[in-house]
């Protein structure tokens, strides 16, 4: 509260002060050897001010009263300097002042679990992977994160939140002549992270799935290359997660739509006038941004503007409904904020970030979708991603694929990938799996903004099927 | 405004960690960073920020066991706590048979890359720079981008007696200028001092490109010759570094260059090296474990020579560290952060004139690795893609997706630009590279803008 008051005294029309304390722990094991074990702590304050309709922001790790007052004054100075280039003054959509506390769900604090237990889990999982003949590298990792945030604003908001994220995964690498094949479990890029405690890691089944994961990596070395074709594509929920992230989550961020990210990550093909009109996807596709989902990396009590967590329809039965927004961007459209402003630590200005942007489950399991497919390709587990600056043309690589023939998985393929145009692809969706194969995944590494920020976001996804997709792109 | 902490204070605080009992060795990596970034869009300043942070990363070794703890509590108490936490972690892990020991004492001279005016730059100074740039925008065009001034100091201290410290500054201007009719242009510049920036020139360059990019035409993807401007070349070099030059990936057979030492891997005209202390880049004189950064020839006249090493991978490979360690624990191994490609003798105009039909590419966007061993990557063109016909730039075209092997592109390189620029698609490093003419480049898709 001192920060907000100091900024007000320095001339701010609006101010918020956000004290954030973060701690993390990371363990990596490769081939029964410790590759890294480290802990990090970081604490500081970010002060955001609005002066005559211009933003200013300053942040420091020095939390003494004099330093906070100096930083608040600097934020005001920054805002005043911004007025050198006139623009329509920023207005904030109305939001009621919020007070209270919030904590992500957790049964067992992962930071209290003995290090020996964590290391032993990874040692055993990698030991089992190494038992598979032909495997070059067996790697496992655990990542833990805790963030405590206190937010106070000149409008009367005063909230405290604590988030704990736990994640783990294993990765098997096989090397052949000119080939490197990789299989991951439960997902690529260090596994599955959730806003849960140690109980989440214990349920992942890293040891139980180790041998299968390693076996598939070795088998991929002798598998055929994924053919080049236009065919029916079935993707698993782990890959659909990233497909949602890149081709729906980012394009519906209202700051991108309004050109505020133009120079760096890019803008969006979606326009403000598309609300309620654009046929984004087939009737089967409904997407929600839900910050209230238990266990999601994009879950919270309030965003970093003090706007309450919400469940917002993004796409309903294929028709685009609404953006994820902030108080500033929402006011441009004359709508309430969707509550999606979040900052990476104390050092950064809050930006619009995805919450938990998920596809709503329909019916059937992955096996049902495959069983209902006469001919096509099933791809699993993301390995590569790329999409253009307006989120139109994308290309994704996966770790593994199989030919589907007569409703059954047959031949294995290596180096599978697919490419498409966002709306054409989503409009071709003719099957979305049900709750039984729907997973709330975590993406803890979403980059955006200048200076660069990393957000921790969630995506609920089920397996899905798409028609007439270009697969097997070659260099 | 904050200033430099300085070597004496770093030594004083580090001592609290270095002095921890019951261990064989301790290393303290100190990083202090401060500065501002003024961000603009629609030709107005919409996000303007300033930040300062100080961090300590403490690595403790006991019986070959290694633990790492980091904190931004830059105080004797913070340093001590981090060391104790690292010691606790080291106590529960198995010894690392490849642990090479800490860096030996080696006095390393500062590269003198600190400019006081840049470190002290005010928001008014940055706003004035942005205003200069925006003033170059013609009617019906708008500028977006960022003007950043940063200062930092990095130090490494360890129980072997090594202590090195270096302050530095960096200033940059980046812009994308877009017009009403669908095209855009891009320009950027990095320097040690903000005095070296010319926002007006950057604005003019992007505006000219944006004007030439209006009303882009459709173009069918396929293979064709390309002229790649330095920003596009930096993507190829940066990703080649990621998958190719690290000593660990090389030793483990994961690199596209593993086992190819002494072999021709590109056209004979291609030479790539890493040199953090060269005046053409923004590097530090030592790496993050306190080893002097060496000049490393990576590809010379088309022949791959060797990669870069930190202490651990050097021990693994039976070599000497080249001074390319990243902050610990870093399971990925060493990485070259200051790459150069040696320029040739062609101008950009000469490359275009030598192209009967092909594309002129300003830069790539969101590039990523498709097949690391084949050095195949994919990405999109952005902010200025032009069809070349009959040796002249004929018209702008909509953005295209490429899927292409980096080493094949560098093998098919027929002309090399005589000017170089410091450029990067990625946040982690910038490369000083020239423009290239590549005779065959694979475009696998297209977009609508």
Please give the domain count of chain A.
2
| Chain-averaged pLDDT of chain A | 97
The largest contact between protein chains, plus residue counts on each side, is: A-B, 83 and 96 residues
Largest sheet of chain B: 6 strands, antiparallel
Binned, the helix content of chain B reads 10-25%
The largest sheet of chain A, given as strand count, sense and whether it forms a barrel, is: 8 strands, mixed
Report the span from N to C terminus of chain A.
56 Å
SS elements, strand count of chain B = 17
**H/E element string of chain B?**
HEEEHHHEEEHEHHEEEHEHEEEEHEE
Termini separation of chain B (Å)? 44 Å
SSE class of chain B: alpha+beta
Widest sheet of chain B: strand order? 3-2-1-4-5-6
What does the oligomeric state look like here? heterodimer
Radius of gyration of CA atoms of chain B, rounded to a whole number: 23 Å
- Shape descriptor of chain A reads globular
Kindly name the structural category of chain A.
alpha+beta
Helical coverage of chain A, percent range: 10-25%
Q: How many strand units of chain A?
A: 24
Quick structural overview:
The complex is a heterodimer of chains A (475) and B (449). With 475 residues, chain A is an alpha+beta fold.
3D structure, described in words:
The complex is a heterodimer of chains A (475) and B (449). With 475 residues, chain A is an alpha+beta fold. Chain A has two domains: 2-222, 2-Layer Sandwich (PmbA/TldD fold), CATH 3.30.2290.10; 225-471, no CATH class. Chain A has helices spanning 2-9, 65-82, 115-130, 198-203, 210-221, 237-249, 254-257, 327-333, 366-371, 422-427; strands at 14-30, 33-51, 54-60, 99-103, 137-153, 158-176, 179-185, 192-194, 224-225, 229-235, 287-290, 311-316, 319-320, 341-342, 351-352, 357-359, 375-387, 393-405, 408-414, 417-421, 429-432, 439-448, 453-461, 464-471. In chain A, strands 1, 2, 3, 4, 5, 6, 7 and 8 form an eight-stranded mixed β-sheet that branches. A five-stranded mixed β-barrel of chain A has the order 10-17-18-20-24. A four-stranded antiparallel β-sheet of chain A has the order 13-12-11-16. Chain A is globular and about 70 Å long. Chain B is an alpha+beta fold. Chain B has two domains: 7-209, PmbA/TldD superfamily (PmbA/TldD fold); 216-449, no CATH class. Chain B contains ten helices and 17 strands. Chain B has helices spanning 7-18, 76-90, 116-119, 123-134, 199-212, 230-245, 247-251, 311-317, 348-353, 406-411; strands spanning 25-41, 44-62, 65-71, 141-158, 163-179, 184-191, 223-228, 272-274, 296-300, 303-304, 339-341, 357-371, 376-389, 392-396, 400-405, 413-423, 431-446. In chain B, helix 1 (7-18) packs across helix 2 (76-90) and helix 4 (123-134) packs parallel to helix 5. The longest helix of chain B has 16 residues, at 230-245. Chain B starts with 6 loop residues before the first helix and ends with a strand. The interface between A and B is large, with 83 and 96 residues.
């Amino acid at each position: 509260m001192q920060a907000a008051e100091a900024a007000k005294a320095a001339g701010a029309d609006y101010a918020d002060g956000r004290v954030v304390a973060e701690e993390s722990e990371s363990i990596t094991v490769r081939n029964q050897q410790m590759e890294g074990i480290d802990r990090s702590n970081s604490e500081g304050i970010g002060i955001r001010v609005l002066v005559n309709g211009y933003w200013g922001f300053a942040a420091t790790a020095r939390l003494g009263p004099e330093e906070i007052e100096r930083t608040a004054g600097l934020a005001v100075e920054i805002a005043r300097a911004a007025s050198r280039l006139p623009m329509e003054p920023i207005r904030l959509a109305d939001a009621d002042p919020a007070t209270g506390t919030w904590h992500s769900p957790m049964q067992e604090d992962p930071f209290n679990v003995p290090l020996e237990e964590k290391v032993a889990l990874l040692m055993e999982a990698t030991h089992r992977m190494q038992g598979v003949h032909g495997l070059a590298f067996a790697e496992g990792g655990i990542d833990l994160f805790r963030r405590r945030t206190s937010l106070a604003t000149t409008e009367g908001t005063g909230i405290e939140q604590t988030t704990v994220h736990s994640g783990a995964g294993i990765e098997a690498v096989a090397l052949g002549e000119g080939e490197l094949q990789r299989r991951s479990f439960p997902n690529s890029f260090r596994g599955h992270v959730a806003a849960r405690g140690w109980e989440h890691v214990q349920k992942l089944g890293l040891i139980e799935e180790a041998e299968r994961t390693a076996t598939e990596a070795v088998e991929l070395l002798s598998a055929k290359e994924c053919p080049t074709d236009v065919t029916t594509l079935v993707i698993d929920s782990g890959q659909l997660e990233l497909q949602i992230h890149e081709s729906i989550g980012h394009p519906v961020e209202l700051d991108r739509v309004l050109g505020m990210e133009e120079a760096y990550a890019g803008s969006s093909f979606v326009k403000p006038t598309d609300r309620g009109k654009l046929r984004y996807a087939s009737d089967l596709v409904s997407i929600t941004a839900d910050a209230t989902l238990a266990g999601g990396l994009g879950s919270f009590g309030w965003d970093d503007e003090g706007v309450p967590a919400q469940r917002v329809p993004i796409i309903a039965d294929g028709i685009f409904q609404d953006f994820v927004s902030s108080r500033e961007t929402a006011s441009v459209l004359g709508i309430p904020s969707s509550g999606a402003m979040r900052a990476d630590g104390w050092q950064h200005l809050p930006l619009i970030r995805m919450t938990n942007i998920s596809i709503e489950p329909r019916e059937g399991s992955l096996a049902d979708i495959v069983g209902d497919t006469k001919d096509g390709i099933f791809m699993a587990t993301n390995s590569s991603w790329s999409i253009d600056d307006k989120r139109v043309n994308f290309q994704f690589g996966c770790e593994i694929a199989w030919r589907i023939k007569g409703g059954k998985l047959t031949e294995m393929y290596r180096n599978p990938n697919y490419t498409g145009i966002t709306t054409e692809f989503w409009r071709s969706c003719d099957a979305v799996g049900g709750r039984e194969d729907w997973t709330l995944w975590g993406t803890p590494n979403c980059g955006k903004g200048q200076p660069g920020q990393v957000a921790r976001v969630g995506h609920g996804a089920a397996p899905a099927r798409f028609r007439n997709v270009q697969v097997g792109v070659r260099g | 405004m904050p200033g430099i902490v300085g070597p004496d204070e770093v030594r004083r605080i580090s001592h609290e960690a270095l002095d921890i009992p019951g261990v064989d060795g301790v290393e303290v990596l100190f990083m202090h960073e401060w500065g501002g970034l003024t961000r603009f869009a629609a030709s107005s300043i919409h996000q303007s920020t300033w930040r300062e942070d100080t961090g300590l990363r403490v690595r403790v070794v006991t019986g070959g066991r290694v633990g790492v703890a980091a904190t931004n509590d830059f105080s004797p108490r913070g340093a001590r706590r981090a060391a104790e936490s690292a010691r606790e972690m080291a106590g529960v892990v198995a010894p690392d048979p490849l642990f090479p020991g800490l860096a030996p004492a080696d006095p390393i001279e500062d590269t003198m890359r600190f400019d006081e005016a840049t470190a002290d730059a005010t928001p008014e100074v940055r706003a004035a720079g942005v205003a200069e740039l925006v003033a170059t925008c013609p009617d019906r065009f708008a500028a977006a981008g960022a003007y950043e001034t940063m200062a930092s100091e990095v130090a490494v201290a360890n129980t072997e007696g090594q202590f090195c410290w270096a302050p530095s500054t960096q200033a940059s201007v980046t812009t994308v200028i877009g017009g009403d009719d669908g095209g855009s242009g891009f320009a950027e510049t990095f320097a040690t001092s903000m005095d070296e920036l010319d926002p007006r020139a950057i604005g003019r360059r992007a505006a000219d490109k944006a004007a030439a990019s209006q009303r882009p035409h459709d173009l069918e993807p396929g293979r064709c010759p390309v002229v790649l401007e330095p920003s596009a070349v930096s993507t190829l070099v940066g990703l080649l570094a990621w998958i190719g030059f690290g000593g660990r990936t090389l030793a483990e057979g994961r690199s596209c260059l593993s086992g190819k030492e002494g072999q021709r891997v590109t056209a004979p005209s291609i030479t790539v090296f890493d040199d953090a202390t060269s005046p053409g880049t923004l590097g530090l004189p030592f790496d993050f474990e306190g080893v002097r950064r060496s000049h490393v020839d990576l590809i010379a006249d088309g022949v791959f020579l060797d990669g870069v090493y930190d202490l651990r991978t050097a021990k693994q490979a039976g070599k000497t560290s080249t001074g390319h360690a990243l902050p610990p624990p870093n399971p990925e191994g060493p990485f070259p952060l200051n790459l150069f490609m040696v320029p040739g003798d062609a101008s950009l105009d000469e490359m275009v004139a030598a192209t009967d039909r092909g594309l002129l590419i300003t830069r790539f966007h969101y590039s990523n690795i498709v097949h690391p061993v084949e050095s195949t990557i994919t990405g999109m063109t952005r902010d200025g893609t032009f069809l070349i016909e009959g040796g002249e730039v004929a018209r702008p075209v909509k953005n295209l997706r490429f899927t292409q092997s980096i080493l094949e592109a560098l093998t098919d390189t027929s002309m090399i630009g005589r000017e170089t620029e410091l450029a990067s698609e990625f946040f982690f490093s910038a490369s000083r590279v020239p423009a290239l003419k590549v005779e065959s480049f694979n475009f696998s898709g297209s977009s609508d803008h």
